[in-house]
Structure formats: structure tokens, C-alpha cells
## 1
Amino acid sequence: MTTAPTLLAVACAFALAACGGDRSAADTAVGATPAPTAEATPAATPAAEAPAATPAPAATAPAGSDKPAAVVANCATEVEGNDAMQFNVGSIAIPASCTEFKITLKHTGKQPVTVMGHNLVIAAASDMQGIETDGIAAGAANDYVKPGDPRVVAHTKLVGGGQSDTVSFPVSKLKAGGPYEFFCSFPGHAAIMKGTITVG
Ligand code: CO
């Protein structure tokens, strides 16, 4: 009970010192370039609303939106992975006219598969985490994909620098549900190595 008034007094004293009319007025008058407009960070509100609303667009947008779309021709495309743990494309759009689609993963780097291995796994975005976890348990011998994992739509082998692998799958597998993503299941890579894959 005795502390409350004391704190109040201190607060008032501080406020007075900080906002003393004469001093701040003088500062501005001198023309000392007012603090640069460093108040342009409206971070609070959007973040607070994010969890519940709009799951689909929010989940797919950050995947690889800063990278170009894969070049698709004849129901096939090539995706490159490199030594900097990056895919060269952020999205793959499969034409609806394709019944089968082929993806070739080419590792353009020099690092061995044990250090900077890449594969390309396709699955529903909601299954990525589980596939990754089980893939790590399955180990490199299984290309970091649990054998027979029903959540995996398709996947290439794990490749190292200079190597490549091609996988082909029925497009119909992507038509039920989604959104779908492609990602690398090498431990720790999927956070960066991922993108969206759509049909139509
Ligand atoms: Co990788």
C-alpha cells in the first residue's frame, strides 16, 4: 500500500523529465533532423489474425514464392538442387491435360550425397512434417523416405552433386485434396527446399 504512491510519484517524475515542454520544443526548433521514420513496422495485427483464418493460401505462399515456376513441356519438367540447399524453382504447375507427369531432379552442385543430398518428394502440405520425421528415422539408405509411406505421392532417389534421378507418377494422384508441395526430405532441408505443385 505504501509502494503504490511511491511508484506513481516516480512515474510522474520520469514523465515530466522526458516530456518537459521547453526542452523538446527547443530540440525541434533547432531543426536537428527528427528521428527518421523508423516506425513503419505494422507487425502486430496480421500475425495475431494468422492462425485461424485462411489456412490454404497462407500455407502455400511462403513455400517458394521468391523463385520462378518450373518450365513444363510434354508433361515433364526438370528441377535443380544445388550446394546452397536450394531448388531453382518455387512452383510446378502440371497441365490438366497430362495423365502422367515426369520430374527430373538434377543436383548441379559438387557436394556428396551424404553432406548435401537432395531428393524431391511430393505430398499434401499437411503430410510434410510427418513424412519428414519418418524419413529421418528411415535414414539415408531409404533416401530419407519411409518405405511404402502411403502419404508420399511420388519421390526421387536421394542424389549428390552431379547426379540426377527421374520420377514419373499419375497426375490423378494429385486431384484429391491438397494443397500439394514438393520438398527435399534430407534432414533439415525441407524448411528451405520446398515449393508448390498444382494441377490445372
Ligand atoms: Co536437400
Note: The pocket of cobalt (II) ion is lined by residues 81, 85, 118, 184, 186, 189, 193 (CB under 6 Å).
## 2
Amino acid sequence: MTIGRHPATRFRRTRKSDAMRRLVSENTLSTGDLIWPVFVMDGTDQSVPVTSMPGVERLTVDRVVRAAEEAAGLGIPAICLFPYTDPSLKTELCEEAWNPDNLSNLATRAIKTAVPEIAVMADVALDPYNANGHDGIVRNGEIVNDETVEALVRMALAQAEAGADILGPSDMMDGRIGAMRAGLEEAGHVNVAILSYAAKYASAFYGPFRDAVGASGALKGDKKTYQMDPANGDEALRLVERDLTEGADMVMVKPGMPYLDICRRVKDAFGAPTFAYQVSGEYAMLKGAAERGWLDGPRVMEESLLAFKRAGCDGILTYFAPEMARTLRARGA
Ligand code: PBG
């Protein structure tokens, strides 16, 4: 394609008014694109602010149900649960992960009873239940893969039993998608979807999240033997292909904004439902700067989320979900 020369071509013609800009706009963000991650804690009728994530709170199950009602009312299609587990329940073998009545499963059941129309996504990884903060079982200093996968399958089955619509394996063990899919089929949970954290990087942007779920103190070492090296791109494509082959319905790139190139490559290569997780550190950066008056909060929120659509994502996990949904609603979008 050749582009006509000035003045035959003036790109500013299609930017001259709001009407013209709306006509030629290539991407749209809508409430239907949002998944809202929420933090669940024990107790009744309480919430505790997460210091490093202004505006985000840990909620007791009854309050999570109210949050889910609010989200459904706003048109947000899915809510994703992360439990803040009491340290006394964290063990080396992470048994609490497959307790049918653990915090995450209680919250899932409560939400599905009160607000059945919202999709509940449950995170599959051992870190909230692990005495050493890792996503897998540790033996002699090694995060062991296959034993972890067995534990993850038990965890996933308990979550499906509790009524989760979507399972989000965020552990980055090899072979977990295939094992979970086989387990789900065998147990009759044939319609439970898997949104695989397929390309999850060993990122420093998860810092505030680890505070929110109380995993920072517990974590010994780093997650570099299972999460991806930020230097790699081709490997992300191989991981996505592997997970889709093993039975993932949707795939995720995480974190989001520093990895938009990966989102685009994944979407172009596979055309599968592709999600990005705008993680806690990304949220904290934008909120923190906005609180100081250094950035226009509402505008950077929207610009950052629209960027994911432009990069080819079908949806975004974001702590901004309710705020963004309210903005879109106020605009009549
Ligand atoms: C752990 C998990 C993490 C996040 C989601 N699931 C943190 C980690 O891998 O250490 C991060 C989410 C965020 O930072 O918002 N399985």
C-alpha cells in the first residue's frame, strides 16, 4: 500500500472532531472484556485495605458476594478469586489447596448461589497454601514438577466441585493443563473452562499481589525455575501452543503492559481467546502516580486497558474492572 502525499493525504482530517475520531476508531474497550480479581479473607462483614494497591481491599466471603453482585450489575462477566490464607493453614504439602471448604471454594459456592450469572474463575496454584510461598511443592530445595501437578489436579477438582466456571492455572508447571483436563473429563466436569496462564513471566510486578495474599513473607527465593525469563518471546508461543493442545480453552499473558508484544504475537499465531493480566504492580504504578497528582488516573486507566485490545487481547484481568465499568456505564458505552 502506498500512502498519498500531502496534501492529498491529510491524516488530521479524520481526527478533526469527536465524531470523525469515533468513526475511524479501530478498537473499543467494553465492560464485557473485563475480569475482576478480588482478594478473599476469613471473617464476616469486614474489609482490609491492601496498602500497596490503593482502592483494593481484601474482603470477607459475605462482602465478596456483594462485590460479585455489584460486578454483575455493572455487566462485568467474570470475577477471579484469590484467597488470603491464614498462615496456620500453610503446610509443606499444601493440603488446604484441595479442602472442599477452603476460603476460595466457600467464596465460589456463595457467589454461585447468590449471583449465578457471573462467571467465577478460581486460581490454580499452591502458593496461598504453601509454607514456603512457592507455586509448587518443594523437596530438598527443588520445586518438583510432577508431584505438584498431581496436587494441582486435586485442587482443580475441588474448585470445579465448588462451582467454578473457569480454572486459571497460574503455577507454570509442565503438563498441568493436560492433567487437569483429563481429571475434569473423568469427573464429569466437561464444561469447566481452563484459562491457562500460559506465558507467565518471573516478574517483579507481582510484588503488591504477594502482599495482598500474604505470600511475600513466606516466599523463599524466586520463581525463576518455573516462571518465564522476561528476555524470551518465542518460548511464549511454544507454551501457548502446548497449553492449547493439552486442553486450555483460553490463554493468558502475564504481566500485561510490559508484554504487549507477546499478546500480539500470541493472538496472531493462534487466534485463540487471549487475555492479559494487568497485574498488581501495574495497577500500583498507575494508582500511586495518580494519587500524587502525577498522572490523570481515569485517563491512564482507560488508555492502559485499551492498549490490550489494540494488542489483540479479547479481555483483561484488571483491578480497575469496577472503576472502568462504572466509567463506561456513565458514558453510556
Ligand atoms: C500466584 C499468582 C501470582 C499472581 C497471580 N497468581 C503471583 C506470583 O506468581 O507470585 C500475580 C497477580 C498480580 O500481581 O496481580 N500463583
Note: Residues 145-162 form the longest helix (18 residues).
## 3
Amino acid sequence: MSAILIKNGTVVNEDSMARADVLIQEGVIVDVQPSISIDSPDVRVIDATNKMVIPGGIDPHTHLQFPFMGQVAVDDFYKGTQAALAGGTTMVIDFVVGQKGTLPLDSWRQWREWADPKVCCDYGLSVAITSWSPEVAAQMAELTRPEYGINSFKFFMAYKEALMVNDDEFYEGLQVCAKIGALARVHAENGHVIHSKQKELLSQGITGPEGHTQSRPEELEAEATNRACVLAAQANCPLYVVHVMSKNAARAIAYHRQKGHVVFGEPIAAGLVLDGSGYYDRDWSKAAALVMSPPLSRDPSTPTALMDLLACGQLHLTGTDNCTFTCEQKKRGMNDFTKIPNGVNGLEDRMSLIWEKGVHTGKLDPMRFVSVTSTAAAKIFNCYPRKGKIARGSDADVVIWDPNRTRVISAATHHHANDYNVFEGMTVHGVAEITICKGKVVWENGQLNVEQGFGKYVPLMPFNNYVFASIPFKQQMSRPICVSRGDCQETPVEPTTVETTAEVNYARRGQQPAGGASSIVF
Ligand code: URP
Ligand code: ZN
Ligand code: ZN
């Protein structure tokens, strides 16, 4: 693979922004300096004058090729990762979601089989727990081993009778996550009440997409978000709330963070840009195109409010929940809104949409933009600084970003497999002019130059200090209290040594943590 020298650009990381040149060799960034000069025919020089040089985007929430609600999402791992690269995203974290009753390890194998031959960029996986048993719990632990590379599990509090787990199962799942050093992720909506409301609305003759939003009031998202935070705190488990779609759900996260709990909130491209008025469109297909869960907010001020929370740090990173179905597939729910396959696009347009609504409006600076589109995900999922940073030694996942150029989003020009785009007609500032993935120019002059299987699986390791470092302290502070009445030892007991999470984890595997052992004495 030839070397690339990017000259005269402004290198933007989450914590710095400065003029610098970037040298790439063998898929890795080998140098970042104020000025690098190399005169060799083997080095391609790219002039980035007036452009920004940013880490490739990481989308932590995709559903490529997902079999869901009787359909299979049309963006498979080939089309989906092409769309990602065209928009400046160079890594995705996809969800393994097995049907109820399937075992997580089998589902993980299935997703690898689907993804490996098709991915054009690197990818990681996050595994959904859709049923509960001691065997599932044991497999969760197994999946955190390096050969499987899973450090997060997702629980659905919605989709009753399909993917949903009940509170007792969720709580036990959270306890297992805490023990094995995995981040718990949650789809927070009250699935029981939604199920009842769906039946009520259908019995009243409301069968169109407007029934989707009416069956899922925002309060049911906020209530479940609060409940998820409470249960995670009770289990002393870090929590990541996916697709935060409403102000009150975001407020619940902020409230629990203020109380000292480890909670991350992920708004998605659609929720940061669109509101839910479209569910009442007289054109069935236009309304059905927007059907996703939780639904877009009925409050038109929500998208800006979510962006404000992202700007001030109460929400932490952005995903897309990219899960695309064609108009024809959506028509499965023509006579019953509960059968419309849920999901929208976003993977190609996320970076530009966030630039437009966040940076162009003056809410985010370019460094915060890099954080919420890339670096925060790399840190939360434990692949930083390999990903999410322009620095020596990092993977050469680099985007030459033109902050001044505009483009118009359209299904006629997008790289997704579906036949509409929920952002159709929007003009956005901020365009990925060149995308470099692992040292290869894969997007340039509006053309993709990709190879199926070029991307590789990135194992994500548990007990990530960025997420877990406070957990043993919290555990120590909340240990059970025994009042001595002659039958047990009064607490607090003698100072105890709490081993750091990394040590416990590595000891379990018979390995030594990198950087040597450490322990904390209370
Ligand atoms: O509507 C959505 N969000 N579809 C994908 C599945 C999920 O809930 O994440
Ligand atoms: Zn979800
Ligand atoms: Zn999702």
C-alpha cells in the first residue's frame, strides 16, 4: 500500500485543532508534524489547504442486514459500509440481535459470517440479550474473551413478545454485565404500555403510521429511561442509553449522572434533525418512511434541544440506528401500523447533518464535532487511540473534511440500498471530500473505490477504564451493612483491598494487565 502525505490541512482532534501535515504508511498514521516534506514518487501528496483533517467517524449504532419484523434491512454489510465511507464514517458498531430463544454465541457467529466477507471498513459488534437463562449469562461472560471481542450488551425494554426482556431479567443482565466488565446498552421504552396502546388504537380503527407515534408517547420513553438508570445504579453497572429521542429521556440521563452514576446518552442523526409531524402526512409512504422506535418527537423544539445537550456534554456521542427498509417493505404494515418495519437511514449523512445542525449553527466547535462523531465512541467502546484520533500510531482512518462545501441530500444520489432518504432535499454544509480507510483512499471526487472484506473485525475488550474505573469504588461504598447482634461482624470492617477491575479481569484469564498490577486500599 502506498504512502500518503496530507499537507496544509487543519488537524482536528477532540482536544486540539492546529495546522499540521499527516503522513500515512501501511495503513497507519506514522507522523503528525507542523511540516513534513518527502520527495518520493511512492508518496501521494494530498493538499488539504482550507480543509480539516479529522478522524474517520465511528457510528456506534447500526443494524446492517438485520432480519427484523418479517423483513431484512436492505443496507447489508456491503451497501451499508459503502454509504458510511461516502459520508466520512470509517467504523461501525453493529448490533447482533438474535431472535428470542437463540443463544448469543450462535447469533454472534451468524453476524460474523454475514459481515466478514462484505465489510468495506472496520467494524465491531455489540450483542443484544433477547431472552434470559443461566446459559445466556454464561455465554455473555464467554463473549467478553478476546477471541469474541464483545464489551457491551444491549437490552430491549420494548418490542414485547419479540425482543423485550422484563425488569427482573434486565436487572440480572445488568448484574452480569457489571461482573464481566461489559457496558450495558438499553432501548428504553415501556413495552408493556405500548403493547396495550397499540391494541387500543387498532380497535379504534387507527391503522396508519399516525398510530405508531400515538402508541408511543414520549413519557413512555422518559419513564423507561429513568427506570433503566435506576436499575443500572442498583446493579452498579455502567449504562449506555441508545437513541435518546426526547427531552425528558435526556433529562433523566442528566439527573442520574448528577447523582454520580455512569450513564451515557446517544442521540441519533434522525432525532437531531427531524420531528414527528411527518407521521400525520396524508401520503402513507412518506409517513411510514419515518416509522422508527422510539418515534421522532412530536415536540418540534426537540431536535435543537438534543443538539444543545450534546453541545454542553449532557449527551455524549451520536449514532444513527441505521436500519433501512424499502417503501415496498414498509408496505407490510399498510393495514396495521404495528407491522411497519421500524427503522430509518442515517449512516451516510450523520457527519454532514451534525456539522450542519451543530457546527454551522455555532453550537459545537469542530473539536466537539470530532468528539461526538468519533472519539467518544472510540473511548466508550475501548478502541481509542487506535480509532478516533489523528496521531502517530493510530489507524489511518482519516477524512479530509470541507467545512465550506454544501451538498443536497437525496435518495437519487445516496449510497444506501433503500429507495428514499428521510432527509431528502436538505442542504448541508460540511462534506467528506476524501475518505481514507486504513490507509486507502476509498472515497474521492464523489466516487467509491472499495473492496468487499477490506474491513476487519475489531475485538472490543471489557473492563474499559473509561467506563469502569469508578465501579469498584462505588461497590466498596455501597457494600452491605451488617449490624452486629452477636451473629455477624459489624461493618465497616477492616480496610479492604479492592482490586482494580483490569486486574480481576485479567486474573480470570490467567494474564497480567498491561502496565502492571495495581490495587486500591480503603
Ligand atoms: O426503529 C428502530 N429503532 N429500529 C431498529 C431497532 C431498534 O430498536 O434499535
Ligand atoms: Zn432500539
Ligand atoms: Zn437500534
Note: The pocket of N-(aminocarbonyl)-beta-alanine (ligand 1) is lined by residues 63, 187, 243, 292-293, 321, 323, 342-343 (CB under 6 Å).
## 4
Amino acid sequence: MLKDKTILLGVSGGIAAYKAVELLRLYVKAGAAVHVIMTKGACEFVTPLTFQTLSGHPVHTELFNLMQEMEIGHIALADRADLVVVAPATANVIGKLAGGIADDLLTTTLMATKAPVLLVPAMNVNMYENPIYRRNEQSLRDCGYHILDPICGFLACGWEGKGKLPDPAVIVEESRRLLAPQDFAGESLLVTAGPTREELDPVRFLSNHSSGKMGYAIARAARLRGAQVVLVSGPTALPVPCGVERVDVVSARDMETAVLGRFAAATVVIKAAAVADYRPAERAGEKIKKNGQGGMVLELEQNPDILRRLGEVKERQLLVGFAAETADLLGNARRKLEEKGLDLIVANDVTMPGAGFDSDTNIVRLLYRDGRMEELPQLDKDEVAWQLIDRIVALRRGVIPSR
Ligand code: PMT
């Protein structure tokens, strides 16, 4: 999303200006070309040389500077940008922009650009709550500016409250969202991820190797493309993707309750979770002890098949399942597609290197109801997720027939 994009990064004069250095580094790492404009105040906190060195481009500070205008004029900066990000955006910059004042290079460029603008305010909590600031922020929102709210915490000024610049990684993710096609907007996606755990006793459980990476990648891609996303997740070590509502579950029965309770509100469901088909018939209240007689037999009972149940009760929802197979990939996947009433199934042979559990990549085949099959090469799970959403958008628009 950021590769080969041109980002104009405006840095204004707050203590959080030092975090803009890390932000710049992340944009460059993601493949973006970054041009930096600093206000006079920003130059008091961090030197332009730091941004110049890391961006590989001259830093712009003056509106009326003959040399800087010759190299690349401020209108060219405004025109060239795919996205303009101001981080930190002080109350002063927000106030000037809301009042139509363009008296320095940053505010002039902001007035001149046609690119989407993301403002990331950071300031003292009392300034942030000041009604004049609130009015200015609202009027910018009304004009179509994007604003990423500050977070709560200890502020450099000694106060505690809302006013801290969000983590640079969160700003980068929001930038990706603003540059992504919003072709999944209007959809409510319910996606499941990770393993389930079926407890044997207070210290042991039956589970599988799912890391959650595949389902989390889908949640993230869908959110970047505009969907509302609820992620029902078994136990994983992964952070919640930005803007996604995560519901934590442990067992298959927990997952069933969470999924069925949210099904009516969903327009699309993708079940990437590796749900345990069986659970111990009894959960021991105390840690099971060795019985001193060698072996031990565990009695298991069947868990509900959540996806099959969704297939039975679905109304308008588009249902997508995954099939994790170790033999007869296509035969087993096609049977699951039919038996569970799915619109699409993503089949992965989990014995292949680079596919399936815990890997950063996957190798999948997409099986449709009309009998078609599509084979994707080995791709990062983020890319598999992206391509899967492409296909779902096409199914929803009728570009790919669903029956
Ligand atoms: O999490 P990762 O480490 O990234 O690994 C990704 C993955 C291998 C887990 C993922 O790509 C995958 O294949 N997920 C589905 C795993 C699975 O449980 O497959 P299955 O063939 O047993 O189940 C078929 C479908 O029915 C799945 O969509 C599953 O979520 C669903 N199911 C299964 C059993 C059950 N009791 N209820 C269900 O809803």
C-alpha cells in the first residue's frame, strides 16, 4: 500500500516531533518516498538534518526560500503527494488550518494540496479539551480532513490525559488505510482465527498448531479496505489489528457462542480458525495424576461444527470456509464446501513447506460453488488475505457467479 507512494510529512512544533523521526523511518522501510516540511517550532525540537538524512531528500522549512523553491516548489510538493500526514499536529497548526490561515510553508501546502490529509494531533490535555480547539478540529473533520485521535497517558508537560501522539506504527497503518481501495466498505465481516483449546484438567488441554496469522491477516486486509470487522480469536500471541474489534474465546463451544451471537449482524463470514472437532468428555476438576498402570484412555465427545450450523441458518451472508488437509486436498475441500453450504472454500495442504500452520506464507486453492478452482502461488499471508478479499468483493458484485 505504501510502496512507491509519495508521502508529504509535516512536522510541527511539539515535543512529540521526535516521534516523527520513527514515523519517517517506518514509511521509508515500507517503500514510500517521503518529503518533509518542518515548521519553525519543529526545528526547535529536532534538527532538519535528522529528517533529511533519513528521508534522503532536502527538508523544507521556509515559504520564501529561493533555493528551496528552485529545488522543488511548495505547490509541487502539494501536487506530488499521494498522502499528506501532519504528525504531530499542534493546536496552532489545526487552528490556522481551520481558520484558513496559510502563513508558513506547512499551512500553505496544506491549503494547496488535493491529496488526502491525515492530521495527528498531540498536545497538552487541557489544550486538547479547550472548546476552541474542539471546534477547530470538528470543522476540519467536516471539511474532509482525516484525524487520528491522540491517546491517553502521561504527557511531557506533566499532566495525564488524552494528548499523546499514537504509536508511529498505528499512524502508518492509518496511512495504509487511507491509501487502500475502500471496495469492502459497507460490509460487516465476522472472521475467526487461531486454535481452540479443549481443557482436560486445570493445567492441560487439547489444541493444534494454529498461530492465528491467517485469520488476523484477513481481519486487517478487510479493515484496511473499509469493512467493519469483528475478529473472534482463539488464544494467540498476536496484537489486535488496528480498528478491529476482537472477541477472545478459548474453546470451540466459546467460539460457537461468540460466532452465533454475532452472525445476524454480519454480511460476510470467513472461518479461518482451526476449531477442535473433539473435546474431552469430562474436564477433571483437579490435575490428573499418573495412575501407575502405564497407559490411559481419554474419552472424547464431538464439538459443534460451527460453520455447518452457519450454513444451515444463513440468510444473506456470504460464507467462506477454510480446509486444512493432509490428503486429498481438493476432494475433501469440495466435500466441505457442499456439506457446510459455503460460497467459497480456501483449501490448504498443511503438509507443504510454506503453507498452513504458523507459517508466514500460505499456498492455497480457492474452490467456488460453480465448480471452478483457482490456484494461488506461495504468498505472504497478508497477500493471500488481500487476494481473498478481492475474490469476495467480486462475488458480492456478481462479477464472479456465486452459484
Ligand atoms: O493460524 P495459522 O497458523 O495462520 O494457520 C492457518 C490455518 C492452517 C489454521 C488456516 O489456513 C486454516 O486452514 N484454517 C482452517 C483449519 C480447520 O479447522 O480446517 P477444517 O478442515 O478442520 O475445518 C473446515 C472449516 O470448518 C474451517 O473453516 C473451520 O473453521 C470450520 N470448523 C471446523 C470444525 C468445527 N468444529 N467448526 C468449524 O466451524
Note: The first strand starts at residue 6 and ends at 11.
